[in-house]
Amino acid sequence: MDAFSAAAYDIIQTSIQDLRATVTGMDRAALNRAPALETNSIAVLVTHAVTSAKTLLDTALSGRMDRGHYMGTVRPAAFATRDADAATLLALLDELAQTAERLTSEGAHADYAAAVEYTGGESGPPRTRAWCLLHAVEHLREHVGHAQLTKQLLA
Questions:
Q1: Nearest-CA neighbor of 78 among 70, 86, 87?
Q2: Please, which residues have CB within 8 angstroms of residue 21's CB and are 6 or more apart in sequence?
Q3: What is the rounded CA–CA span in Å between residue 153 and residue 155?
Q4: Is the CB of residue 91 less than 8 Å from the CB of residue 51?
Q5: Which one-letter DSSP state was computed for residue 109?
Q6: Which residues make Cβ contacts (< 8 Å) with residue 88, sequence separation at least 6?
Q7: Which contiguous run of DSSP H or E holds residue 21?
Q8: pLDDT tens, N- to C-terminus, the chain (155 residues)
Q9: Quick check: pTM over 0.85?
Q10: What CA–CA distance (Å, rounded) separates 57 from 137?
């Protein structure tokens, strides 16, 4: 595995562990409670963090993104999460771990300098595959912090 993919993989694995620690032991009501108006529950934060990271990782490795599907279907569904339990959220984190495993086999062969090809009819801003990998890591870490702070507020 190349150094770039290895570093991203390590940070993603740490993020998954941090989110697992945040979710573990919390009951359904706490996981789905937003601490204030205009904030998100831990269930929403984890669901969004996982689905966005998986999308960005896949884009970094494949070079293609169906932005319309993500923005019109996947992202809104994550923010509509209202009744998730710990087992459901931990299973999502398992899915992210499986997607991240692709970095160990495909990362060394990815042309990170290449531009992303948008499919499905909706284009986005010009991005490279490297940008998508860096954004996957950065965005995931941002929501790890959000989830940890939300848990502190709910305690």
A1: 70
A2: none
A3: 6
A4: no
A5: G
A6: none
A7: helix 3-23
A8: 899 999 999 999 999 999 999 999 999 999 999 999 999 999 999 999 999 999 999 999 999 999 999 999 999 999 999 999 999 999 999 999 999 999 999 999 999 999 999 998 888 899 999 999 999 999 999 999 999 999 999 98
A9: yes
A10: 9
Segments of the chain assigned E as strands: 64-65, 117-118
> Structure tokens of 104?
């160990």
Between CA 131 and CA 133 the distance in angstroms is 6
Amino acid letter, residue 6: A
Q: Of 53, 64, 45, which is closest to residue 139 (Cα–Cα)?
A: 53
Residues 6+ apart with CB under 8 A from 36: 153
CA separation for the pair 73, 142 (Å, rounded): 22
Vertex 145 angle, CA 142 and 148, to 5°: 150
